[in-house]
Amino acid sequence: MGAKYAIGVDYGTQSGRAVLVNLADGTEVADHVTPYPHGVIDEVLPVSGVKLEHDWALQHPADYIEVLRRSVPEVMKQSGISPDDVIGIGIDFTACTMLPVNAQGEPLCLLPQYSANPHSWVKLWKHHAAQEEANRINETAAQRGETFLPRYGGKISSEWMIAKAWQILNEAPDIYDQADQFLEAADWVIYKLSGTVLRNSCTAGYKAIWHKQDGYPDREFFKSLDPRLEQLTATKLRGTIVPLGTNAGGLTAEMAELIGLTPGIAVAVGNVDAHAAVPAVGVTTPGKLVMAMGTSICHLLLGEEEMQVEGMCGVVEDGIIPGYFGYEAGQSAVGDIFEWYVEEAVPAYVKEASAEAGLSVHEWLEQKASAYKPGQTGLLALDWWNGNRSTLVDTDLTGLLLGCTLLTKPEEIYRTLLEATAFGTRKIVDAFHDSGVRVEELYACGGLPQKNALLMQIYADVTNREIKVAASKQTPALGAAMFAAVAAGAEAGGYDSIVDAAERMARVREETFRPIPEHVAVYEKLYQEYSRLYDYFGRGDNDVMKRLKAMKEEASQPAAQFSNAN
Ligand SMILES: Nc1ncnc2c1ncn2[C@@H]1O[C@H](COP(=O)(O)OP(=O)(O)O)[C@@H](O)[C@H]1O
Ligand SMILES: O=C(CO)[C@@H](O)[C@@H](O)COP(=O)(O)O
Fold first, then answer.
1. Same domain, 502 and 446
2. Ligand 2 close to Cβ of residue 194 (< 6 A)
3. Is this complex's ipTM strictly greater than 0.90?
4. What's the CA-to-centroid distance between 173 and ligand 1, angstroms?
5. Do 40 and 187 reside in the same domain of the chain?
6. Which of 35, 468, 515, 565 sits in a 20 to 30 Å window from 356, CA-based?
7. How confident is the model at residue 565 (pLDDT cuts 50, 70, 90)?
8. Is 43 strand, coil or helix?
9. Residue range 28-55: average pLDDT?
10. Which ligand is nearest the CA of 415, by number?
11. CB of 11 sitting under 6 A from ligand 2
12. Rounded CA separation 456/513 (Å)
């Protein structure tokens, strides 16, 4: 059999990218990025101009198809490979990124009668406007002693399926009624590719409280939340839930024509971006924490037992690699915080100096910030610009910068923001390790390790652990291609298991980031200070962040909730 290939498509927050991979050794032959034409929709809806409230984040489902339409033919063209040698396609997605569809699988937002209602659109993972629903889910589950709660670190996030679906019911009951199903965007795209609606066990497990043995929480639980939700899982979340690497069926003739591949090739069921990255860095055993570092960070870890860990996002049997319990935790903003600083808060002279030096503002600030020793800025920050995902699971928390003086420089603030996110990761590493899910080594993938060496050194110093970095620049897409190879199977030139695929296709770079002992010592002290602030502002001693947020909301009234911006 000649060389065989698969395509992995990674659906990120701002763009989608396709990667064509040689299945013999994981070589990435060609890649292409398509920025989402509508980006993240967080101010006004397309066409109708309806204004969105604070904490909303939506996407346009047509953008996902546009990624396939543009990027798949482009990687085929760049590589010159015959479509006959491409045996499968797989995708990974941000999650929970969900949408209401009608009985024909059409997104409601694409139907003119619903398009002016924000609730008909795709709710992106970082849509944080369902916090009230999440709070009530958590109170009710705790009161009822629901056994699922510890599996999610004690709290269900507002980012996830049940809170988002309930927000739709509360604020737009007509959209809720008209929705035949709520689907993860990952599952919707697979439906478009294969013609089959299948729910993947990864998003169902991590984001929709589904358990391999117990299924969804029982109806009584949903009824106690709201009688109208009693049938939610039997109706709008219904459907077959299948393991990662399952072939959803062949590529449809219509899609094959649109994207230039052969009809009938394997289409792997959807996967979560960060989870797909784990086998793609070669991690298929416990003790190795994978950090998917980009806009946010997802932390993934394998364990042999189901343990309880404070504030983790979840533990799902077979959720990442079959045969292990897959653990997930995360920070809801990391690169996003640095971007906020660069876009909103650096003085003009920094932008001018960066341009003169031929560097991006990030690169210029990194260079300047590298000249400081740990502790030398006198600054400390709490990295909650987009709430706290782990370990506090509270999207109402906000950022804090402490220690500024009239002499504080932009590069010092930038360094402090890098450090704050490293301290956030340390909290997560400690939570796992101290709860019996050991963390010995760190693996990093995603955009940030390629972009910022200072950041990576700080993470090694703050966690006092060596960090290996993925060789691939498109690790989740490589993982998606690996799962496509599994969906195709060894007989077709793929693999029979993801462990086999990882052995042959995954790679890390030779150079690693090792902790520097003098830095470790200073960061240990700073971490203790960070922990004090973390507990004080995050655990209820001082709810000033929430009071400020409430005042802000009140002062912004009357908010034109669904009013027209024009
Ligand atoms: N040199 C840099 N140092 C640190 N962060 C950077 C740098 N350049 C870009 N970023 C941040 O990287 C993030 C994008 O990461 P990336 O992994 O490419 O995207 P995504 O999370 O969408 O997959 C943005 O939030 C941006 O602020
Ligand atoms: O929440 C998850 C995975 O569980 C991610 O999809 C989400 O953090 C988005 O990741 P990116 O920062 O876009 O890589």
1. no
2. no
3. yes
4. 37
5. yes
6. 35
7. very low
8. coil
9. 96
10. 1
11. no
12. 7
Q: Which residues contact 49 (CB under 8 A, 6 or more apart)?
A: 564, 565, 566
**One domain, residues 464 and 482:** no
* Residue 247 Cβ < 6 Å to ligand 2: no
Residues 132 and 256 in one domain: yes
Q: What is the CATH number of the domain that holds 461?
A: 3.30.420.40
Range of the domain at 561: 282-471+516-566
3-class SS shares of the chain: helix, strand, coil, % to 5: 40, 20, 40
For residue 454, what pLDDT band results from cuts at 50, 70 and 90?
A: very high
Query: pLDDT at position 1, please?
Result: 74
Instruction: Report DSSP state, residue 489.
Output: -
pLDDT in tens, 198-212: 999 999 999 999 999
Instruction: Indicate if 236 and 355 belong to the same structural domain.
Output: no
> Is the same domain home to 367 and 439?
yes
238, 216: one domain: yes
Protein residue with least CA distance to atom 5, ligand 2: 94
User: For the chain, what is the domain count?
Assistant: 2
* Cβ–Cβ under 8 Å, residues 89 and 115: no
* Residue 559 binned pLDDT confidence (cut-offs 50, 70, 90): low
Give, rounded to a whole angstrom, the gap between the first and last alpha carbons of the chain: 61
pLDDT band with cut points at 50, 70 and 90 for residue 560: low
* Ligand 1, pocket residues at CB < 6 Å: 12-14, 294-295, 335-336, 338-339, 362-363, 366, 446-448, 451-452, 455
Q: Where are the alpha helices (DSSP H) in 102-183?
A: 131-143, 161-171, 173-178
Please state, in angstroms and rounded to a whole number, the distance separating the CA atoms of residues 63 and 355. Answer: 32
Judgement on whether residues 363 and 227 belong to the same structural domain of the protein: no
Q: Does 335 score more than 50 pLDDT?
A: yes
The closest ligand to the CA of 297 turns out to be 2
Cα 520 to averaged position of ligand 1 atoms, centre (Å): 25
The mean pLDDT of 33-53, rounded to a whole number, is 96
pLDDT of 510: 94
| Minimal-distance CA residue to ligand 2 atom 14 | 294
